[in-house]
Structures are given as structure tokens and as C-alpha cells.
Amino acid sequence: MNTSELIDRSLFYSLRKQWEKALDFAKQALAKDPKSFLAHKRLSLCLWYTDKKEEAIASMHKSLEFYPEFASAHYNLACFYAQQEDKDKMLHHLNQAIALEEYTDYHQMAKDDGDFREYRKDDDFLAIVNANNEKENLLIATLSGEDYEAISNLLLKIEREIPVTIIEWEDYYGDDETTLPYLLASKWDKISQEALLHVFKIVTQNLDAEYFTGLIPLCHAIKNQIPADYNHFIIEAWKNKYSDMDAKHLSSLDRNFLTLIAELPVEIIADVIVWALNSHGKDALEDYEELCAIALQDLPENHEVHDTLINSIDTLMHDNQYQDENISDKKQRLVLSIAPPPLKYPEGIEDFRDQFQFQFKQDHPYHIINGAAGLARHYDFIHLVKPRLAEIANLANLNILSLELRLEAISEVLAKIGSKEEIALLSPCLQDKSYQLLKTVGQLFHEHEIVAEEASEAVDYLIASTQIEDIDAYELHDIIVALRWFKDERITDILLNFLDYERELVAREALKGLGTQKAEKAIPKIINQFKSGYPQCVSAAAQALNDIGGIAHLELEKRSNFDIVLARAQKSPRWATRALSYFRVDGMDIDLVALLKTNKENEAYAHITQAIAKRGTQTIFPDLLAIGLDTFTSRDIGGRNFVLMFNTIIRNTSDNINEEVINQCKEVLVNTDTEDITAFINILERDRDYARLKYPNEEEQTIIDAFTKQYAETLENSDLINVLFTAKYYS
């Protein structure tokens, strides 16, 4: 690989936070070209995220030594120095970045960047980021203009001088003339081939671009530029991308990629499928289902991979169950399973509900199940599906159908609208060898208290599967998830054996399983997970105690256990905070508010606020209000979570309105700038309607109305009160 390719590979792994791999490729790039400013920048970022801070700073300065006007390097140095609390150097490099960069809005980037969190109230920092910004719309203006040389040059600067994140891909949706997809679709011939290929490379490597809607017009533009090489180009690009992915985790961009591959000759499609099944195994079947359907329908029987394709698909779907069957019969069975005949709707059928009804009337299992699933989602059409639920259960029991189709029949139809008797018809599924199918049916039978003779066979199979030598952790996870839903005296001991398993995801599910099994004898070991378990196991342990109930609930009322979990939540907020809402400890709301103030992990806010909502009292309202009036913090927490806390606390209280609390709230507001109050109101209004609130009963609504009125009258700020205590309710 040349220097540019090595830098690209380093960027690829950086975007996936695989820093050691990224570091290795950055070093290789520098070995080839010690004067590459891009390689020095890439190396610097890898060093920073592998905790080699001083080396990282030195390498970023080296990048500037070879390209003094490299604005992106100045911005990264500003971030580094902000983290090291070196204010003067931070301000210097931030100023340089803003002064040097023509297109990138570093003003706004710095405002939003978490690296500058500690400076968001610093006057010198604010003076820079709030300065008059004449560049704000220059990027969009250039892309929507008629200077195609400038457009091509701008596209080439992405990730060279312009950080890729500055292109807000979601801003370019639609077919409007100001959008990048429109530009690529309608004026591709005016953009340089080099620029098109560069954008393709950035889009297909960068995780921020997974919702970019312009991939198809971009590739069609490239096809028009390089028609002879296009097929090879698109296949090699996809193989490079898919090789580093986990199967069954396709983004919308990946699905567009597969749509492009579906346009290629069927012989190429078949080769890609065989390659994917060999490289990713059974999991790839779900990703390539539509391509498999095309190949099974259209690939000539005399093609060299015809038999290989059919045998590969059949073996992955059914192991060696049909190994003695001839190719013709295998193909016929697979076509029935995953390659339904194309559906042509009669003229006049355009509404999706009419289309579901038309599907439901077809003979092929694929169309019947898809149509039933679509109709079952709409209350007015459930009556059409109900009479055929026994038929759909029988289809779900057919192991010649694809696992995905059977699961759709179970999860999207029978689980939603089936009766206990109709769900019980799924008992033959318990003889299946799919862990996912056993989990789905086992959970349904558990929830509906259905006893089936086949359950013992499923338990024996799952227990035996846990003993497989060198079993993959993800496979073991699926086994544990399935096993938890069955009743058998052996299950508790097996789950206990996996509490100290080396992979977190297995231990976590074992804990949840002990809760489902109501395993009182496991309580001491579950409690021990608070102190010594993985971060995810802390929350799973609390959930298990809650599910066991009875004497296990006493452990959730102990201050000593809560303090241990609180300490874990401070260290691992993303995972351990999920445990907090299960506790019922006097005064814990004060500790939770303190945690909310110091938390910096975005994914933890929902869990902390949920715990505050469940366990809080009105005495913490002044503190919550003060947190909300800190615009930067409240923006991270979200308006919906403030509404959830205030509404739920009010509903849960039986006390009268506390005048002292109201006066404290008033004092908080008096000491706050009007701009901050307005900003908080805007945050609340933006997403308050998504607060997870159940519809209030009459008594709860009376309490809410009383609080709202009293607070509005006393605080003389009805706008704030109205949005803080109001949300759409979902039953």
C-alpha cells in the first residue's frame, strides 16, 4: 500500500475506535513518507486515544511543521490543550483554526465539542466562538453554486483539511437543488472523477455517513465516469467494507450498497454471495437474503457456482439435514423459503394497507406472513388475520422456511394478536435447533404460562450446547438468553456457573436469567456482583433482585448496597447507572441529583433521570431547576427527561405543595439571566413530547394541575411552568 492508502486504512480503524490497529497503519504511512502532514495528524490522534498524550501533541505539531496552514491540526491541538487545561495554548490554536479555514465552521464546532466543556462559561473562549462568523454558510453556498471546479476542490478537501464531521450528511437529504445527492445525481458530469472517487471513499469508510442518502446517485455518477471498471470497483469496495463488519449490523448506507450490487449481472451477484457466506457464515444469510433470492431465481444452472451457491445456503440454513437431496429439489425448497415470486400489484392498489391485504391473499408463505405482519400492526385490520392464525402458526413450525420468516410470523403476528391457545400451537418450534427461535417461543410460553412436552427437549439441547468446547461467547450468550425462559431445576445451577464468565455479555444474561428463574438461593452471589461484577452486571444484578422479589427486595432497600452501586455508577456511568432505579433507599434522590450534576456520559442521563423520577421528592426541585438553567448541561440531559422527572415526582407525592420549595425555586429563577431561562424553555419545548409518561389517572391529573397552577402563580413564570409540567401522554 502507498502512503495515501495506509492513511485511509488508519482513518478506517480510527472511526471504529480500534486505535491500536489505526496506530499501526499510521506508523507505516510515516515510514513511507516522514514528511506527510496527514500521516502525522493521523498518528497524533491515535497516540492521544492510546493515552500517549505528550507524544500526540508533539506529532500534531510535526504536522504543522510540514503544513503550517493546516487548520484541522490547529483545531485538534486546541482540543488537546483544553483537555490539559492549558488555556493560553488552547485559545491560540483555536484562533488559528478559525482564521485559516475557509469552509469549516470552527466557531460552532467548538461550541458543541465536549473537549471544551470546562470553558463554556469562560469569557475569553466565548469571545472567540461568539465572534461574527462570516463563513457559516460558505460550504453550502459553494456546493449549491455553479463553480464546479470549486465544488470538486472542496470535495477533495474533506478529511484532508476539512474534518469529515463538518459535512453534516443529514443536512443533504431530499432532492432539493441545495443537496449533495441532487448535485451528484443531476450534475455528476461537471464534477471531477477524482472528487467523486474521494467522496465515495469518505462516505463508505466513515460511520458518521451511515445515513447519507446520496450513495446511489454517487455510484451511478462514478459508473458513468468509469463504465468499464465499475463492476469490479463496486464489488471490491463492498468486500473491503463488509470484511471489517459484523454481519447482521447493516446501516441504511450498507443497504443502499446492496441495492447497487443487485443491479449488477446475476453471475457477479452469485460470486459475492458465495464470498460473503464463506467469510461471515450463517449470519450473512440475513444480510444477503434479497441477493440470494435474485441468484436463486436467475442464475443459469450451468454456471460454475450454481451448485456451490445452493449447497452453501442450504447447509447454513439447515446444517446437513438435506445433504442427500439432489440439487434440483434443494433449489425448489430454497426458492419456496427465501425467493418468493415477484409480487405485481393490480392497478389502483397504492395504499400500503391495500398492498398488505393483497399480499395476505397470495399462496407463497413469504407473502402470507409479510401481509399478516403488516395487517397485524393496524387495529382496523386485525380481524382479517385472526381467522388464519392457526395457518400462520403452522407456517412458523415449518423448518424449511428461513429463520427470519418464521420469527416474523411469531413475533409480528402471533405474539401481537394471538390467544394463548393459538400461541400454544407453536410447540413444535421447541424441537428446533435455532437458539433465537427457542428464545422467542420460550419467552412467549413463559409469559402466557403455556406448558409443552417439547420444552424438556429444548432444555436438554440448550444445556448440552453450553458444554460445547471452545464455544463462541456470542453463541453462548444466545443460549443463556433462550435457557432463562424455561422451567427446569438444573437451570439455576447452570446460570450460577456463568456469573464469572470471562465475557461480560454472558455473565450479564446469566444474572437476568436468575431473576427470571426466581432463584432465591442465588441472592448472595447476585449481591456480590455489585462490588466485583462487570459494569453491565451491576445493573443486571439489580434487575435480577427486583425480578426475584420477596426477600430479594430487602437488598434493594439497603443503603450499603446502594452506596456500592452509586460508586460503580460514578466510575462506569454508561452501564452501572441502569441499576439505580431499582433501589428504594431513603434520601437517595439527593445522591442522584449530585450524580446528575457531575455526569458527563450522554448515554447515562436517561438512566439517572429515570431513577430520580421514580425515587425523587419535591424537595429536589430547586436543584433540578438550577441544573436545567445551565444551558450546556440541560441540552445534554434533554427536555424530555426534565419533564419526566417533574411530572413523575408530582404524581408520586401525597404531600401538599411545599412553600419553602417554591420559594427556593423562585430564588433560583431570580438569580438567573432571562436568556438562560429562555434557552431552558426552548430545550424543554423541543422534545418534551417524547417524555416517557403514561396517561395520568384522574387523581394524578388533579395533583399535576394543582402543582402547575401554584408554581405558575408563585414563580410568575408561566411559560417555564407550562412546558415543564406538560407533555403528551402515552398509555
Automatic annotation (TrEMBL):
SUPFAM superfamilies: ARM repeat, TPR-like. This is Uncharacterized protein. It comes from Tenacibaculum jejuense.
